[in-house]
Design goal:
The structure is a homodimer. Chain A has about 220 residues and is mainly alpha-helical. Chain A has helices at about 5-35, 40-45, 50-60, 60-85, 95-110, 115-125, 130-155, 165-180, 180-185, 195-210. Chain A is built from 10 helices and no strands. The relative contact order of chain A is 0.10. Chain A binds a DNA duplex (30 and 30 nucleotides) through helix 1 and helix 3. Chains A, B: This is TetR/AcrR family transcriptional regulator.
Chain lengths: ~220, ~220
DNA sequence: ATATTTTTAGACAGACTTGTCCAAATCGTC
DNA sequence: GACGATTTGGACAAGTCTGTCTAAAAATAT
């Protein structure tokens, strides 16, 4: 049994393990030091791997950055998609459920490690390597906004919200949700669960004051 | 006449001119390349000055970064203060005047060169040199928020707004005003006058839907 | 016109990086 | 135990960058 694939799998596993370890360390170091300041020796050391292995896996330093960005954007997109699926389409207590949803959004997409990495890499290398993030830029936020806008539009149809422009409302929702977290996000501070809850509560209350309607029958 | 001060003034002028030229070029290069990636030769060339002059004026590369950050934060603070003074304390048409105010805020503080530089430097070097921005962090946003909150509180007292927490409202106002500009700001794109106007209009409309009251007598 | 300060260009040592090469060691499979 | 692939540590050349030093040039004040 498992006549010819077992070796490949085993090899692939250790291979992949090291590959991921390198990507992980590279993400950390690139974010801390920036692309120019990142040191391949340091990345290798943090990955628990020899420098030659880094070169074996990814070739170039620039190539390594590309791989890191691809990895992170994929994970981020997956997280966003997954969280969007938990939107309260048929709410009972809209305020409460929107707060829960926004908390999830922040935890899974903005405040976690990947979110921090993407934000920082975007900021530090976005202008120098525009191609790197072109894909994310086009498919990432635009799709998120559109998906969220569609949900809000449906809530408006079922009488929960009073919206002029669902797209604008979606962007405003996201902006409000981050209003109290801006500083922490910029400085890389960790946000406590409680901070996140009150920030999100403030945001949803404001959003519903602007666009909410009394509970429909 | 001008017996003993004239020389000092003249020297100071050229001295200061070169000093500013260096700071300006350094700000550009630091923002483009990050601290580690910034090249003193390049800064000198962009400033139209010899490298030795850079060292004469600011000593260290790290020292130069400190000087740049100090310069920019001072200019930003001045701009914020100046713009806050134009807040519509006694509005006639609140929506219109808040929009005008928010447009000024964005143009003078967020979307101009200094705003872009501060944001980027903060993002790229904020974690590595926390002391650098400690002063700004403490006195910058906190003061802005407080000042804006005080204005909103006064509007609430005079019957224009219905606020629970003026501080939260102030942060939300700023967040809303930037909602549609996020992507452009991150990628360093220039925002057109028209983009800025519609973004700001959307923001103020939402803010007033949440917190506005019919015009008081 | 002269004296003083500032600026300039270039050379320089020391340190650090990247990317390559190679022989020895390690690992998992047959 | 033997085999093939992968990993390792170290050495290496080529390049870059910082910060210092020097003597000449330019600018400025008296």
């Amino acid at each position: 049994m498992t006549p010819a694939i077992a070796p490949d799998i085993a090899v692939a596993r250790s291979h992949t393990a090291k590959r991921l370890s390198v990507l992980d360390a590279a993400a950390r170091v690139f974010c801390r030091e920036g692309f120019t300041g990142a040191n391949i020796d340091l990345i290798a050391a943090e990955a628990g791997v020899s420098r030659q292995t880094v070169y074996n896996h990814h070739g170039d330093k620039e190539n390594l950055l590309v791989a890191v960005v691809r990895e992170i954007t994929e994970r981020i997109n997956a997280g966003v998609f997954e969280t969007l699926a938990t939107f309260p389409d048929k709410p009972v207590d809209l305020e409460l459920e929107l707060i829960e949803f926004a908390v999830r959004l922040n935890q899974n997409c903005m405040c976690n490690r990947d979110g921090k990495f993407l934000r920082k890499l975007l900021q530090t290398e976005g202008e120098r390597y525009p191609d790197l993030f072109a894909g994310w830029r086009e498919h990432g936020p635009a799709k998120t906004w559109a998906a969220l806008a569609a949900r809000f539009a449906r809530l408006a149809l079922s009488g929960w919200l009073d919206l002029d422009d669902p797209d604008v409302a979606a962007r405003q929702f996201l902006a409000l949700v981050n209003a109290d977290l801006q500083m922490a996000l910029i400085f890389g501070d960790t946000v406590s669960e409680e901070q996140l809850r009150t920030a999100t509560t403030n945001a949803v209350r404001c959003f519903l004051r602007a666009y909410g309607k009394p509970r429909p029958v």
